[in-house]
């Protein structure tokens, strides 16, 4: 079946396809600027999307999304969808790294020297004394109901260590 031959496609299917393209247009319009700028867009589609991002009126924006959906039908969406999937995968991995670092931070604070020994064995680049001091300060702040400044500093240290050499999970 040729997707451009509308005789072979039911009216309901055409409506579903149009809604999917409008949803894709809406997704692209709501992307952060850096992610949007990284998309491989044809010139006419890029222009329509940039214009759509500036529109504030709900009705005008909806009309522009319909126009963008029409333009999307005229182009190969494979590279655009691949770029969106890549961004989603990178976000998923980044979130996973963040959760691993949070688990290590909480484990270090809760278990102390036992977790510290395990952490330093797995991450020899870590400064044991600095980590121990941050753990001690974080516990003290927690006990005194103070703002968690040392807890944040410990997380920042873990993040910096993770950027140099990825830290394994805290299972």
Annotation keywords:
8 helices; single chain; 2 domains; Diphtheria Toxin Repressor, domain 2; elongated; mainly alpha; 171 residues
Query: How would you classify the helix and strand content by structural class?
Result: mainly alpha
Give the total of domains.
2
Assembly status:
single chain
Class of the largest domain, according to the CATH hierarchy?
Mainly Alpha
CATH structural architecture of the largest domain? Orthogonal Bundle
Would you mind describing this structure in some detail?
With 171 residues, the protein is mainly alpha-helical. It has two domains: 11-75, Orthogonal Bundle (Diphtheria Toxin Repressor, domain 2); 95-164, PSPTO4464-like domains (Diphtheria Toxin Repressor, domain 2). It is 75% helix and 0% strand. It has eight helices and no strands. Helix 5 packs across helix 6 and helix 7 (128-143) runs antiparallel to helix 8. The longest helix is centred in the middle third of the chain and has 34 residues, at 78-111. The radius of gyration is 25 Å and the shape is elongated. The model has no long low-confidence stretch (mean pLDDT 89).
